[in-house]
Amino acid sequence: MKSRSCMAVAGFVVTLAFLFPMYAFGAKDKVVIGHPACLSGKYAKAGEQAVGGIKACIDWVNNVHGGVTVDGKKVPLDYKYYDCESKKEGVTSFIERLITVNKVNVVFSAYSSGLTLAGAPVAERYGMVYMDHGGASDRIFQQGFKYIVQTIGPGSKYHEGTLDMIHHIDPKVKKVALAYEDSEFARMTMGGAEKHAKALGFEVVFKRTYPKGVTDLTPLLSDLKTKKPDIVIGGGHYEDGQLFTRQMSDLGIQVKALSLVASVTLPSYYEALGGRLAEGVMGPSHWEYGVTYSAAGAKKEGLDWIGPSQDEFVALFKKAVGKDMIPEYHAAEAGAQVLAYVKAVEMADSIGQDKVRAALGKLKFMSFYGGWDVDDTGMQIGHSMIDMQWQEDGKRVIVWPPEAATGKPIYPKPAF
Question: Which of 19, 134, 274, 385 could form a disulfide with 111 if both were Cys (CB 3.0 to 4.6 A apart)?
Fold first, then answer.
């Protein structure tokens, strides 16, 4: 009878070890980050950047920071990732595998709001801290998940900084037009922009969405032109951003400012438009090479600093991807997520899921990526979007906020 009881207890422990891997029993010789990465499929470009950024910051943590301190011991970070092929079924199956087979201590989300949301219930079921570097939709944080924490800024805030900047430069300008893609992310951005514009005293004279994959925006832009807006903000993804700009030029729509999400920040946008049409166009971004966030700036703001400088991060990124390639914001936000996790583990002095999640909720710090602070739902509220603008001779200039700016904005925008 005693033997059967022992066997039952042993079976119970084995079951716990399966359902709640080594993070429930304390670290061994490493702390493992798990990641269903988008290395192929429609998000492959962003996925390559994210993996490179994560590897870069893990390199810094292990070789400069000396590892993550847990229970008085420096422990190296390890990184286990699979290619989810930018598919929801890949995300869900690999998250489960990472937790139950690879015994990871934290899961990083895949890129995009849809894939991030698809993986959240799996991480929640296992009580696993789930860090979101690529899902900007506010809706992710309206589902009541307890273990998700965001590094990327929420979609509703993408154009807030743009409006703040224009209001600061030209407080007399009033008429704004909103024209966004009919997608969850873009609608969320439009809703936030409309709310913020009205709070600043702007008059929204035009508000409309256009379908995904649109090939002609002439009808929408013709109607927009009749409203004579001073500024136009909108966009959605890469192809429609080019089309938007080109057809505004074709229709002779001259405005004081034009800002489009997603497309404008990519070098290929400038190249596709031959340079001239892109000049003066702005776009919000989570990070751009050249930002001036620094340890000195953190001290001035009364914040802790962790991680490499911008130039150190760029060098580590190039080493990680094996290419002479400048990282984009997808890499920076994923890398900054490594630093946030390390800060939380060291604050908690534990890799226990509930302790780390509680610490993430208390963190306020700065890195090369900018500020960090999350609200009670796990949504990021401490990271400010930056605004970049294409200027003469293809210069990418960060124009807002002032603490990250590398130059002054051209305003009003040059005529097409």
Answer: 134
The per-residue pLDDT for 119 is: 98
Per the CB < 8 A criterion, the answer to whether 316 and 60 are in contact is: yes
Q: Which residues pair with 365 in a beta bridge?
A: 304, 372
Output the CA torsion 189→191→197→198 (10° steps).
-170
CATH assignment of 22-153+290-372, among 3.20.20.70, 3.40.1650.10, 3.40.50.2300, 3.40.50.12240: 3.40.50.2300
β-bridge partners, 70: 73
Q: Looking up tokens 């199956």, which residue turns up?
A: 93
> What is d(CA 400, CA 390) in angstroms, rounded to the nearest whole number?
13
Cα-Cα-Cα-Cα dihedral of 310, 314, 315, 318, to 10°?
A: 170
User: How many angstroms separate the first and last alpha carbons of the chain?
Assistant: 87
Enter the tokens of residue 282: 């702005």
pLDDT in tens, 320-354: 999 999 999 999 999 999 999 999 999 999 999 99
Residue range 95-141, pLDDT digits in tens: 999 999 999 999 999 999 999 999 999 999 999 999 999 998 899 99
Whole-angstrom Cα distance, residue 144 to residue 84? 25
The CATH number of the structural domain formed by 157-285+386-400 is 3.40.50.2300
Quote the CA–CA distance of 271 and 276 in Å, as a whole number.
10
Token pair in block for residue 152: 């990327």
pLDDT digits (tens, 9 = 90+) for 270-291: 999 988 899 999 999 999 888 8
